[in-house]
Specification:
- 72% of the residues lie in helices and 0% in strands.
- It has helices at residues 2-24, 29-40, 46-64, 70-94, 112-130, 142-160, 162-169.
- Helix 1 crosses helix 5 (112-130).
- The protein is globular, with a radius of gyration of 17 Å.
- The termini are far apart.
């Protein structure tokens, strides 16, 4: 079960690092993300919400790195992803046709695929919480650890590419 814990930390850590980097490293990234928050969650103060999301994402990443605090980081990820999912579902119900800006500027509007991606990320974080190792201090064997890291990284890449994957299945008119 230690390997699931490791894969979960890699998955969530990589997704949140890429998400945060996309928002903060590009020239207009913060403004674009704030604009997407304004469209996605119109009843919330966009600038404050955008800052809170970025701070939470950074906190999740910092908490996930050490094994001793990783459960708190994974729990924070679950809460943030639940908030994202609720905002996406609300936008879908409004038929808003907005993009989430989760990984930077995107022309792809939120859809059921966005909800599915977030649900799978929530499941990955919950798997890490459930399978956290006990406090005996015995670590997993290296071959399994490397496999767990690879699995987490591949899952993170698939989560990042979900919009492009979903676009392959969209019906064109």
């Amino acid at each position: 079960m230690d390997h699931v814990f490791i894969a979960s930390r890699v998955l969530i850590g990589m997704v949140f690092v890429v998400s945060l980097t996309a928002k903060l490293s590009r020239r207009n990234g913060r403004r674009e993300f704030t604009d997407s928050v304004r469209r996605l969650a119109p009843h919330f103060p966009a600038r404050t919400t955008a800052v809170a999301v970025c701070v939470t994402e950074a906190s999740v990443v910092l908490l996930i790195v050490p094994a001793a605090t990783a459960v708190y980081g994974l729990a924070g990820a679950v809460l943030l992803l639940l908030c994202f999912t609720i905002a996406v579902v609300a936008a879908l119900r409004r038929r808003a046709g907005v993009s989430c800006g989760c990984f930077g500027k995107s022309a792809t509007p939120v859809s059921g695929f966005t909800v599915a991606r977030n649900s799978l990320l929530i499941a990955g974080a919950l798997a890490g919480i459930i399978t956290r190792p006990d406090a005996t201090g015995a670590g997993p064997a290296w071959p399994g650890t490397l496999t767990a890291i690879a699995v987490g990284a591949v899952a993170a890449a698939l989560a990042y590419l979900m919009d492009e994957i979903a676009d392959l299945f969209r019906v064109r008119s």
